[in-house]
Amino acid sequence: MREFSVIVLGAGGVGKSALTVRFVQDVFLETYDPTIEEAYRRVIEADGVTASLEVLDTAGAEQFTGLNEIYIKSGGGFVLVFSLTQEASLREIDNLRQQIYRIKGGDTAVPIVVVGTKLDLVSEREVSRGTIQSLVARWGLPFYETSAKRNWHVADVFEDLVRQMIARYPSDLTTKKKRSLHKPCIIT
Fold it and tell me: Highest taxon of the source (predicted)?
C-alpha cells in the first residue's frame, strides 16, 4: 500500500477542519474550534491504487504560520483551502502556493489541489467562479468547490490529490529510497 502525507493549509476559519473531518470520519463539525494541528489517517483508493493518507490539518491563525514551513517540507501533497464566502481568504492561497514552491526548491510539479469551501452558503458567496477559474488556470492547478456540511465534492478533492501523488512519486522510487536507508552495518 502506498503511503502519502497530505497537508491542509489555508487562512483561519475557512473550513479546513470541517473538510478534513468530513473526508476522514464522514462527520460535519457544526462548531468552529480553531485548530493548532490535528493528524488523521484514512485509506483511499484511486485508479485501482490503494493509498494510506496521513492528513495534517493545520492552524490558520497567524500566530502559527511559522509552522507552515515545517509542514511543507514534510508534505507530499497539499490541499489549499479558502472560503467562497470570504474573498480575502483567496489571497492567502496564492501566498501559500508560492511558499510551497519556494520550500520545495522551485519544484512546480508538487501535487496541489485548490479548494473553495462553503458552497452551500449561496447567499453569502463573495468569490465568483470566474475569478477562481482564471487564477487556477494561470497556476495550472485543479480546483473544487465543496461543502463539508452537505458532503459535496469532498472525496473528489482527495482522490485528485492521490492521483497526482501516485503520478509524481512512482512506487519504484520510494522502494529504492527505503532500500538505501537500510544498508547493512559491517563491523570489522
Answer: Eukaryota
